[in-house]
């Protein structure tokens, strides 16, 4: 799974829209949209927030075994 698939699955599982995920992570909705389109990857700070707020490890986010 790519980080895009993982983020989409997390959003579905937790019932979050792009705007709600952005609010949880303290980023702009446009940033989340760019992640989901593959135009950008989350930066270090965002990866840590995803880990802390959504309960997923950075390795899981990027499909590293």
Describe this entry's structure for a reader.
The protein is mainly alpha-helical and 65 residues long. The chain has one domain (3-61): 434 Repressor (Amino-terminal Domain). The chain contains 5 helices and no strands. It has helices at 3-14, 18-25, 29-37, 44-54, 58-61. α2 (18-25) crosses α3 (29-37).
CATH architecture: Orthogonal Bundle
Considering DSSP H and I runs of 4 or more, what fraction of the residues is helical?
A: 55-70%
Q: Alpha-carbon distance between the termini? A: 11 Å
CATH topology: 434 Repressor (Amino-terminal Domain)
Overall 3D form = globular
Radius of gyration (CA) equals: 10 Å
Q: What is the CATH superfamily classification?
A: lambda repressor-like DNA-binding domains
Write down the secondary-structure element order: HHHHH
CATH C-level name: Mainly Alpha
Number of strands: 0
Chain-averaged pLDDT: 91
Number of helices: 5
How many structural domains can be distinguished in the coordinates?
A: 1
Strand fraction: under 5%
Low-confidence stretches: none
Q: Which class of secondary structure composition applies to the elements?
A: mainly alpha
**Largest pleated sheet:** none
């Amino acid at each position: 799974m790519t980080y895009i698939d993982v983020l989409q699955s997390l959003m579905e599982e937790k019932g979050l829209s792009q705007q709600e995920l952005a609010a949880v992570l303290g980023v702009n909705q446009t940033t989340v949209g760019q992640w989901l389109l593959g135009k950008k990857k989350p930066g270090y700070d965002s990866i840590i927030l995803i880990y802390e707020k959504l309960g997923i490890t950075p390795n899981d986010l990027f499909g590293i075994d």
